[in-house]
Amino acid sequence: MSNDSASASAAATAGGEYEFQASEEGVVRDLAGTMRMASMAAMLLGLLSLGVGGLRLWGGHILGGIEGLGTALVAILASMWVRTAAKSFQLVVDTKGNDMKNTLSAMTVLRRMFMLGVVACVALIALLIGGNVSGFMVHRSHQQPAAAAAPAAN
Fold it and tell me: Would you say the pTM of this structure is higher than 0.85?
């Protein structure tokens, strides 16, 4: 029997559920820890953006306030979903017999988070294009034609 088939047979539990080996669990443990740190960083970004967005709204800067609150929403949601996925990955390490279930649970949550990223990117692209087009149109409407700017010579 080769090493690969020995590892594969040793990795299956009595119920046929795949069980990660110790070296694989080390990778999953490190991933869960890194994801917890990323979750905390995203939550901090979200809370700071919430505060800045609120202050901008209070100061009358509507677009800046909406930008800050939008950033806060995305960062806080991403933080919660990354933390949930990290817990599922940690369960892979901490429990026996549920590695595939916990891995799939984490991947489901990560899929939601990445879809949020796609939606946020599309929204930001639309705002960037819309803001630049409207800014260009406002700028052009305030320019006077050269002939109208010069006094008529009589």
Answer: no
